[in-house]
Design goal:
Largest sheet: none
Distance between the termini: 57 Å
Radius of gyration: 22 Å
Helix content: over 70%
Oligomer: single chain
Number of strands: 0
């Protein structure tokens, strides 16, 4: 949901450094942000919604990373975030599936690179350093937000469990008192 906040800035940055195609892909991905929300509203399925989000993220991450230069490109930093988000939204099985998918994509990048088919990044070293910094910082922020979401959900679950245990103890005490 934060994509519309940062994607236009990345799109403009990439356009400014001579990568209008990657910038356009990032910007187009920001326009797709309402799609998972629409799917969730129409179906009520977190599994379907999580898979749609993971699919969009995987495709955008893979295409942009490849266009940035392949296995050594800054976009590689975003690959671990896809299965984490998929698991938080859609569950463990979905997270495992997207982990496998993204590892296969990374292995394909490596194999293509070893076969001499890596694209040549069109970035000057100083621009590549800025891109690495930007993507590393944004991936770190997103990872922190995902971890915060997990902690919040965990705290809510533990609070519900504690309340249920207290209610059970009260019911047990009342049942014991009624039998005396």
């Amino acid at each position: 949901l934060t994509v519309p906040l940062w994607a236009p800035g990345f799109g403009i940055l990439l356009w400014a450094v001579g990568q209008p195609l990657i910038g356009a892909i990032i910007f187009a991905a920001s326009l797709a942000t309402p799609l998972p929300l629409w799917i969730l509203r129409r179906t009520g399925s977190l599994v379907l919604t999580g898979n749609v989000i993971a699919l969009i993220m995987s495709v955008v991450t893979a295409v942009c990373t490849w266009l940035e230069g392949g296995p050594g490109a800054p976009g590689v930093l975003w690959f671990p975030l896809v299965p984490i988000l998929a698991m938080l939204i859609a569950g463990r099985r979905t997270g495992i599936a997207w982990t496998v998918f993204n590892v296969v994509v990374l292995l394909a990048f490596y194999v293509l690179h070893e076969l001499g088919h890596s694209p040549t990044p069109g970035f000057q070293p100083d621009v590549m350093a800025v891109l690495h910094l930007s993507l590393a910082a944004s991936a770190t922020i997103v990872a922190f937000l995902l971890a915060s979401l997990f902690e919040s959900l965990k705290a809510d679950a533990l609070g519900s469990l504690e309340a249920a245990n207290r209610a059970l103890a009260v019911a047990r005490d009342q049942a014991e008192a009624a039998t005396r």
